[in-house]
Design goal:
The structure holds 2 protein chains of 2 kinds. By secondary structure, chain A is mostly helical. Helix content of chain A is about 55%, strand content about 10%. The longest helix of chain A has about 30 residues. Chain A starts with a strand and ends with a helix. Chain B is built from 1 helix and 17 strands. The chains are: A mainly alpha, B mainly beta.
C-alpha cells in the first residue's frame, strides 16, 4: 500500500508510507490519498476484464453452441456478441483504470452507453427457437425483457453524468473522498 | 470516525445502486420465470384431451378439441390464443378456420383450452359431404408468459375426414312400365356415414329426362348414425310420357341446417 499527498495531477502515484506517528494530514488542509498505482490498477483492470469476457462472451458462446446441438437456435450473431462483449470489457477496464481521474465519469457514461446500444441492437432479434419432431416449432421472444434491462445502463449513464459534473464543478472532491487515508 | 460523503458523490452512488438493483431484480425475475416455465405441463395427446365433431344448425361441421394446460409456476399466461386452420392435404386448399378464445391461465391453475374449427360443408367444401379426405391441421399458439416473454408455437398434424355421405350413390335400376301406364324407376340409395355425427333429415330425389324435365320427385327421411350406412331401394313413378332413359337422378339433402346437392347420377 502506498500513499501520497494530494497533488494537482489527476493520477497521483503513491510511494511514501505514512508514518504512524505523523500528524493528521487533514489538519494541514491537504488530505493524504491512498491511490493505487497505475500498474496495480492496470493489473486489476485486466483481471476484471478477463472475468467479464468469460461471463458475457465465453459462457454465452459456450451455452449457445451447446443448445444449438439440441436444435435450439437464435438469430443473435455470435461474432457480434463476442466483439461487443470484448469492447464492453475493454471500456470497463479503461473505466476502472481511470477511477482516480476526471476521465472516470465520461468513461462510466461510455460503458453504460455501450451496453445501452448493445441492448437496443439485441431487442428486435432477441429470440430463441427450436424445432421438435419436424412439425412443431417453438420461438420465445424476450425483447421486452431486454427493454426493462435498458433501465440499468440508463441509471449508469446518469451516475456517470453526475460524476462528470462533480469532477468538473468540484475538482478533486470525489478523489479526495474516495482515496482519503 | 467516517466522514460524510459529498452530496454529488452520494447521488452518483445512489443512481449506480438503483441501476444495479434493477439488474439484480431482473436477473432474479428471469431465473424464477425460467423455473416457473419448467413447471408448465401441457397435456397434448394425452387422455385428458377430448375431441369431437358435430353438425351446427348453420350447416357447418364443428370440430372441437380441448387441451389441458397445467401452470404450476409463479407467473400467469395472458393472453393465450390458439389459431387453427384446416386445408386439403392434396390440393392445399384452405377449408376451415378456427381457434380458441383469448385465455388467461393464472399461476397454479389447471385450465382446459377449448379449440373449435368450423368446417363449411357447402360451396367449395361440398366434396367433404361425400368424399373422405386427408386433411392437414395447422395450429399456431401465441402466448405471453409472465407479462414479458412472448411464446409462439406452431405445428401441423394430419387429420382424416370421414364424409357423412361417403360414397353416396343413387343408382337407377331398369325402368318398368306398370299396367296403369306409369313407369317405375327403382333407385338404390347407398352411402356410409363415416362422420362422427348422424345424418338426420330428408333426401329428396328428382328423376329427370335427358332434357332436364322432371319426371317424378320423391323424398325419404333418413336417420343414419355415424359409423353406419344406408343401402335401400326406392321406387319412383313417372308418367309414360316422360322417358327417364338418358336422364339423371338429382339428389339433395336437407337436415341439420344443410340444404345441399348430392352427386347426380346418370340414368343409362
Amino acid at each position: 500500500v502506498t500513499a501520497t499527498a494530494s497533488s494537482t495531477e489527476n493520477v497521483g502515484p503513491a510511494y511514501v508510507p505514512a508514518p504512524t506517528n505523523a500528524p493528521l494530514p487533514a489538519a494541514e488542509g491537504k488530505p493524504v490519498l491512498l491511490i493505487p498505482s497505475l500498474g496495480r490498477r492496470l493489473a486489476w483492470a485486466i483481471v476484471r476484464a478477463a472475468l467479464l469476457i468469460v461471463a458475457i462472451v465465453v459462457i454465452p458462446w459456450y451455452l449457445l453452441n451447446l443448445v444449438s446441438g439440441y436444435g435450439i437456435g437464435t438469430p443473435v450473431p455470435l461474432l457480434g456478441l463476442a466483439a461487443l462483449g470484448v469492447a464492453f470489457a475493454a471500456v470497463g477496464a479503461a473505466r476502472y483504470v481511470s477511477r482516480p481521474t476526471r476521465a472516470f465519469g465520461p468513461l462510466t457514461i461510455a460503458a453504460s452507453l455501450m451496453s445501452f446500444v448493445y441492448l437496443l441492437y439485441l431487442i428486435p432479434i432477441a429470440s430463441i427457437g427450436f424445432q421438435h419432431a419436424d412439425n412443431v416449432s417453438v420461438a420465445i421472444y424476450f425483447g421486452r425483457f431486454l427493454q426493462y434491462c435498458l433501465l440499468a445502463p440508463l441509471f449508469g449513464m446518469a451516475a456517470g453524468a453526475v460524476t462528470t459534473y462533480e469532477d468538473v464543478a468540484r475538482p478533486r472532491e470525489r478523489i479526495n473522498y474516495e482515496y482519503a487515508l | 470516525m467516517s466522514r460524510r460523503a459529498p452530496a454529488l458523490y452520494r447521488l452518483s452512488g445512489i443512481l449506480r445502486g438503483i441501476g444495479t438493483a434493477v439488474l439484480v431484480l431482473l436477473v432474479i425475475f428471469l431465473v424464477t420465470a425460467a423455473y416457473s416455465a419448467a413447471h408448465l405441463r401441457p397435456s397434448v395427446g394425452g387422455h385428458q384431451n377430448s375431441s369431437g365433431i358435430q353438425l351446427d344448425p348453420n350447416g357447418t361441421a364443428q370440430i372441437t378439441e380441448s387441451v389441458n394446460l397445467s401452470n404450476q409456476g409463479y407467473y400467469s399466461i395472458a393472453p393465450l390464443v390458439v389459431q387453427l386452420e384446416i386445408s386439403n392435404a392434396t390440393t392445399g386448399a384452405l377449408l376451415a378456420l378456427g381457434g380458441s378464445p383469448a385465455l388467461t391461465i393464472a399461476p397454479g391453475a389447471n385450465t382446459s383450452i377449448p379449440i373449435s374449427v368450423w368446417v363449411p360443408l357447402t360451396g367449395s367444401s361440398e366434396a367433404l359431404l361425400t368424399q373422405d379426405e386427408a386433411l392437414v391441421e395447422h395450429a399456431w399458439v401465441n402466448a405471453t408468459y409472465a407479462s414479458i416473454f412472448v411464446i409462439q408455437l406452431s405445428g401441423g398434424d394430419n387429420y382424416s375426414w370421414g364424409a357423412p355421405f361417403s360414397g353416396f350413390s343413387a343408382a337407377p335400376g331398369e325402368p318398368t312400365v306398370e299396367s296403369n301406364g306409369t313407369v317405375v324407376v327403382p333407385v338404390t340409395v347407398s352411402f356410409s356415414n363415416r362422420a362422427a355425427f348422424p345424418d338426420q333429415g330428408t333426401i329428396s330425389f328428382t328423376v329427370e329426362t335427358s332434357t332436364g324435365v322432371a319426371c317424378s320427385t320423391g323424398s325419404i327421411p333418413i336417420d343414419v348414425q355415424g359409423g353406419t350406412g344406408l343401402y335401400q331401394t326406392f321406387s319412383f313413378y313417372s308418367p309414360t310420357t316422360c322417358d327417364p332413359a338418358g336422364g339423371s337422378i338429382r339428389s339433395t339433402y336437407q337436415g341439420s341446417g344443410l340444404d345441399v346437392a348430392l352427386p347426380t347420377e346418370p340414368i343409362p
